């Protein structure tokens, strides 16, 4: 299950990475809908679009940002799941646990661990977010997992190979910081490999009692988060089918078979609200239509429920920071 909501962790790491530079916070948060005041919230939740927008802003300043963030994303970034993994008996047990709860990992990929002969391959596939950010997300995901391996083991995990589906980037020399092994580009999958014998190694922080306690918390949190994601996905599905004549909050509440107050409360718990979800869906649809021929701005505005083309232009400028005409390929 891919994340429908996520924490502010990646956003905060991105801001911290640029903290010692002259880059203003407002530039990194531009068009994300995230306010500086939101960063102090302990239970804040944001949408993938918001997180990825901040990452996209950061990428304009540092092309290898995915690798840099991945090297800084330690096991503690994964909350209770991270501590459950740390207290697992063996390295293999920790991996099986993490893969069992993808909703808690908050990843944009389907992660797999497969043993082929003497090698264990960790792969990331089925990416379904913004295509222009796929390389960034692959780099951050796999570099982070390498960092997590070191945290679990208390030592650097020796890699045997790493491969990536995309072409070699101009900064490929920086891959050595995360993948100190032979690296192949234009490969069939995004993955790295290590000797399978490491899966049986006992973890230095293994503790059966702590593990059982944290495992119970993982099960409860996963159930709650999965239910929220399913609920949010249903709301997005309803709104996406009615963009030309979007329902108000009260009508949407009726369609969800709940009261407007209940709907507001649930959305608040998810770190979002009605207008933000509607804008998010409109923005996604607008980008799709702007990339297609035969869709003038006036027709797109009508398709998205705007009464005037000017209103759509102003909204798109607010969402993306550029005019619709400048977004077209």
UniProtKB/TrEMBL annotation:
InterPro entries in the cross-refs: AraC-type_N (IPR032687), Homeodomain-like_sf (IPR009057), HTH_AraC (IPR018060)
Keywords attached to this entry: DNA-binding, Transcription, Transcription regulation
SMART domains: HTH_ARAC
Keyword Transcription assigned: yes
Domain HTH araC/xylS-type per the UniProt entry, residue ranges: 233-329
GO cellular component: cytosol
Key word DNA-binding present: yes
PANTHER family given in the database record: HTH-TYPE TRANSCRIPTIONAL REGULATOR GADX, HTH-TYPE TRANSCRIPTIONAL REGULATOR VQSM
UniProt-recorded name of the protein: AraC family transcriptional regulator
Organism of provenance: Pseudomonas marincola
Lineage: Bacteria, Pseudomonadati, Pseudomonadota, Gammaproteobacteria, Pseudomonadales
């Amino acid at each position: 299950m891919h994340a429908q909501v996520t924490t502010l962790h990646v956003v905060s790491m991105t801001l911290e990475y640029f903290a010692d530079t002259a880059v203003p916070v407002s530039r990194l948060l531009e068009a994300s809908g995230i306010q500086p005041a939101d960063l102090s919230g302990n239970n804040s939740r944001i949408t993938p679009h918001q997180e990825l927008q901040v990452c996209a802003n950061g990428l304009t300043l540092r092309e290898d940002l995915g690798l840099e963030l991945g090297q800084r994303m330690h096991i503690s970034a994964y909350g209770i799941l991270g501590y459950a993994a740390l207290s697992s008996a063996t390295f293999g047990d920790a991996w099986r646990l993490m893969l069992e709860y993808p909703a808690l990992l908050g990843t944009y990929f389907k992660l797999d661990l497969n043993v082929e002969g003497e090698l264990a391959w960790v792969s990331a596939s089925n990416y379904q977010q913004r295509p222009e950010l796929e390389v960034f997300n692959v780099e951050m995901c796999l570099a982070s997992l390498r960092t997590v391996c070191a945290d679990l083991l208390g030592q650097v995990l020796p890699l045997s190979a790493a491969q990536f589906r995309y072409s070699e980037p101009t900064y490929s020399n920086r891959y050595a910081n995360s993948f100190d092994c032979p690296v192949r580009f234009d490969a069939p999958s995004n993955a790295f490999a290590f000797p399978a014998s490491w899966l049986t190694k006992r973890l230095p922080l293994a503790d059966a009692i702590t593990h059982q306690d944290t495992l119970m918390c993982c099960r409860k949190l996963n159930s709650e988060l999965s239910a929220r994601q399913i609920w949010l996905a249903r709301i997005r599905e309803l709104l996406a089918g009615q963009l030309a004549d979007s329902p108000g909050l009260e009508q949407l509440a009726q369609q969800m078979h709940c009261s407007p107050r209940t709907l507001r409360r649930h959305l608040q718990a998810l770190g979002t609200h009605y207008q933000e979800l509607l804008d998010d869906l409109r923005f996604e649809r607008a980008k799709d239509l702007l990339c297609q021929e035969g869709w003038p701005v006036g027709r797109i505005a009508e398709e998205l429920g705007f009464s005037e083309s000017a209103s759509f232009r102003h909204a798109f400028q607010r969402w993306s920071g550029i005019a619709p005409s400048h977004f077209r390929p």
